């Protein structure tokens, strides 16, 4: 079943080739290949390594009204993803080996995408007592990334110890950078739009100051720090300085922070509520430039499904978060490829190669070549489609891109030689 012939695919948008896959591995590339196996005619689509999302909320266990490992895996396969990192802010929190092993096992049972559980840094995400990182790292789930995402590890003593411990375990601490003391009651980016709407502001400095502190702590610990969902142009400058000084820091930006601004808030539609908040046009411009330059390493979705009852409410009561898995590639093409900031090699770098490197995945984000795993996304670069939340595979519908016409579509996803999605149909 794992033998496959992919015909007429253009690796990184270059010349078309055929690829013969046996046992999940590319064994031959060339033109005019034939074999008595299943054929996937790519029809000239761009062939990229399968996408790796460092930041996904799958909501299982405990939030199954919004998403499950199964529905989230289906959304991932439709988006061209072959690996996702499932954030631990579930109920119960993924702060023990039992919970991370459960999530990992559910991912394997569904079998559409490699589901890597992220372990909590602190017990119950409460920021008080460090969770047993070593036990989770050594468990069957082999946790490689830890985060209290949704909340910031605010206590510098705990953050310092977590980084020291992470360094000895060779794992990554992913920080949701938000100084909660500066964001009490915050509902929107602190700026003119928030003032006009009468919403309490979330100042960009609440992100910038935590990132600056954490870079100093990571340097001292010799640890790998990953900064989640960078949203502010000032944070980019902090990251640039830290990287110049050799700090082991990586960073992600979400599709929504590449495309949307707080101007969207004037509708008061809570679909636009997200944490960190949508910021200004200057910030989106800085995010794009930093991603092109590599100061921001990767695009991560922060796919945050919320059932309708959590969004169909007044702004202040609505939960923050947006869907991302099924629209990420198109938003990256729209914001980065169309303006000439990234080519297809660059897309492979930010959606697949760098995320796999940061998380230490040996068999994802690999070159497209003989002897390498057949783990791919196929992209029709000429497609144009209209986003409809109701038509997405995710259980929730909270896409901020509703009704938008976006370029490029993922036409097939292949995980170790197995087709997981073809023309929008998930192959369970
Ligand atoms: O908007 C957000 N939603 N930001 C977070 O940090 C958490 C996430 C969620 O879990 O819904
Ligand atoms: Zn977060």
Automatic annotation (TrEMBL):
Pathway: Pyrimidine metabolism; UMP biosynthesis via de novo pathway; (S)-dihydroorotate from bicarbonate: step 3/3. Binds 2 Zn(2+) ions per subunit. PROSITE patterns: DIHYDROOROTASE_2. It is an enzyme of class 3 (hydrolase). Substrate binds at residues 57-59, 89, 275, 306, 320-321. One of its GO terms (cellular component) is cytoplasm. Its cofactor is Zn(2+). Keywords: Hydrolase, Metal-binding, Pyrimidine biosynthesis, Zinc. Coiled coil: none annotated. Residues 44-232 form the Dihydroorotase catalytic domain. GO terms for biological process: 'de novo' UMP biosynthetic process; purine nucleobase catabolic process. Transmembrane segments: none annotated. The active site is at residue 302. Zn(2+) 1 binds at residues 55, 57, 149, 302. SUPFAM superfamilies: Composite domain of metallo-dependent hydrolases (SSF51338), Metallo-dependent hydrolases (SSF51556). One of its GO terms (molecular function) is dihydroorotase activity. Zn(2+) 2 binds at residues 149, 176, 229. Its EC number is 3.5.2.3. It catalyses: (S)-dihydroorotate + H2O = N-carbamoyl-L-aspartate + H(+). Belongs to the metallo-dependent hydrolases superfamily. DHOase family. Class I DHOase subfamily. PANTHER family: ALLANTOINASE (PTHR43668:SF2). Catalyzes the reversible cyclization of carbamoyl aspartate to dihydroorotate. NCBIfam families: PRK09357.1-1, pyrC_multi. HAMAP family: PyrC_classI_B. This is Dihydroorotase.
């Amino acid at each position: 079943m794992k033998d496959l012939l992919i015909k007429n695919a253009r690796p990184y948008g270059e010349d078309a080739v055929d690829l013969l896959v046996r046992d999940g591995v590319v064994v031959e590339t060339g033109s005019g290949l034939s074999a008595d196996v299943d054929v996937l005619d790519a029809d000239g689509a761009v062939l990229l390594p399968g996408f790796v999302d460092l930041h996904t909320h799958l909501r299982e266990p405990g939030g199954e009204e919004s998403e499950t490992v199964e529905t989230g895996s289906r959304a991932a396969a439709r988006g061209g993803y072959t690996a996702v990192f499932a954030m631990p802010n579930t109920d119960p929190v993924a702060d023990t080996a039992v919970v991370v092993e459960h999530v990992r096992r559910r991912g394997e049972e569904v079998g559409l995408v490699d589901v890597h559980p992220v372990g909590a840094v602190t017990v119950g995400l409460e920021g008080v007592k460090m969770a047993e990182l070593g036990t989770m790292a050594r468990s069957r789930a082999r946790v490689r990334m830890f985060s209290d995402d949704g909340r910031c590890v605010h206590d510098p003593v705990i953050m310092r110890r977590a980084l020291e411990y992470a360094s000895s375990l060779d794992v990554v601490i992913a920080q949701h950078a938000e100084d909660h003391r500066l964001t009490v009651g915050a509902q929107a980016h602190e700026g003119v739009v928030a003032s006009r709407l009468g919403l309490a502001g979330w100042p960009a400095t609440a992100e910038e100051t935590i990132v600056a502190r954490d870079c100093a702590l990571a340097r001292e610990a010799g640890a790998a720090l990953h900064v989640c969902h960078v949203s502010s142009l000032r944070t980019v400058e902090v990251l640039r300085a830290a990287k110049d000084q050799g700090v082991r820091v990586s960073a992600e930006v979400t599709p929504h922070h590449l495309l949307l601004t707080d101007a969207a808030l004037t509708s008061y539609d809570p679909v636009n509520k997200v944490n960190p908040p949508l910021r200004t046009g200057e910030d989106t411009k800085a995010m794009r430039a930093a991603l092109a330059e590599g100061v921001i390493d990767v695009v991560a979705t922060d796919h945050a499904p919320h059932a309708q009852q959590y969004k169909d409410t007044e702004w202040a009561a609505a939960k923050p978060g947006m869907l991302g898995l099924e629209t990420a590639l198109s938003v990256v093409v729209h914001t980065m490829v169309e303006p000439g900031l990234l080519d297809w090699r660059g897309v492979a770098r930010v959606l697949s190669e760098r995320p796999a490197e940061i998380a230490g995945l040996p068999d994802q984000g690999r070159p497209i070549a003989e002897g390498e795993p057949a783990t791919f996304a196929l992209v029709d670069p000429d497609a144009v489609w209209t986003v409809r939340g109701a038509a997405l595979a995710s259980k929730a519908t909270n896409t901020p891109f509703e009704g938008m016409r976006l370029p490029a579509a993922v036409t097939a996803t292949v995980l170790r030689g197995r087709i997981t999605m073809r023309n929008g149909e998930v192959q369970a």
